[in-house]
Design brief:
single chain, 137 residues, alpha+beta, HIT family, subunit A, 5-stranded antiparallel sheet, binds adenosine monophosphate, binds zinc ion
C-alpha cells in the first residue's frame, strides 16, 4: 500500500526525515515544512491513499479521532486561540501532494492568515435545486 514515487509515503514510513509529533502503526503526524502558523501539522496515514474518496472508512474514523486528540494537545501546549482542520482533494481544491493528509492548523489572534471563502449570493430556489441534485430527488 505504498507508492514509490510519493514523498508522503517516504516520510510516513521513515525513508525521509521529518519533525514527528506522533506515530503509531497506521499514522505519522509531522510538522508541515511550509507552515501557515506555528505548529501547523499534517496527519499522514502510512498507507498510500490518494485522497478522501479512496480512504477506507476505518482509516477515516481513526483520522478524525487522532485529529481530535492532536488538536487538544496542541492547543494546550501551544496556547493557540483556535484551530482549523483542512483537507484538500484534487488540484482545483488546492491539493498539491496526492497522498491523503489532514492539516492541523493552530490559529492565533492576529496570525495574519485567512482560511476562508467569499460567500456567494444564492436564491432559495437555487439552493433547493442544489439540495435535490445532491439528495437525488
Ligand atoms: P496540500 O496542498 O493540501 O496537498 O498540502 C501539502 C502540504 O504538504 C503543504 O502544506 C506543504 O507545505 C507540505 N509539504 C510538502 N512537502 C513536505 C515535506 N517534505 N515535509 C512536510 N511537509 C511538506
Ligand atoms: Zn503516498
Amino acid at each position: 500500500m505504498r507508492d514509490d514515487n510519493c514523498i508522503f509515503c517516504k516520510i510516513a514510513n521513515g525513508d525521509i526525515p521529518s519533525k514527528v509529533l506522533y506515530e503509531d502503526d497506521e499514522f505519522k503526524v509531522i510538522l508541515d515544512v511550509g507552515p501557515a502558523t506555528k505548529g501547523h501539522a499534517l496527519i499522514l496515514p502510512k498507507n498510500h491513499y490518494p485522497n478522501l474518496y479512496e480512504l477506507p472508512d476505518d482509516t477515516a474514523s481513526k483520522v478524525m479521532l487522532l485529529a481530535k486528540r492532536m488538536a487538544s494537545r496542541m492547543t494546550e501546549k501551544l496556547g493557540c486561540d483556535g484551530f482549523n482542520l483542512v483537507q484538500n482533494n484534487g488540484k482545483t481544491a488546492g491539493q498539491t501532494v496526492f497522498h491523503f493528509h489532514l492539516h492541523l492548523i493552530p490559529r492565533y489572534e492576529d496570525d495574519g492568515q485567512t482560511l476562508g471563502w467569499k460567500p456567494l449570493e444564492m436564491a432559495q430556489e437555487e439552493l433547493e435545486e442544489v439540495r435535490k441534485t445532491i439528495v437525488g430527488e
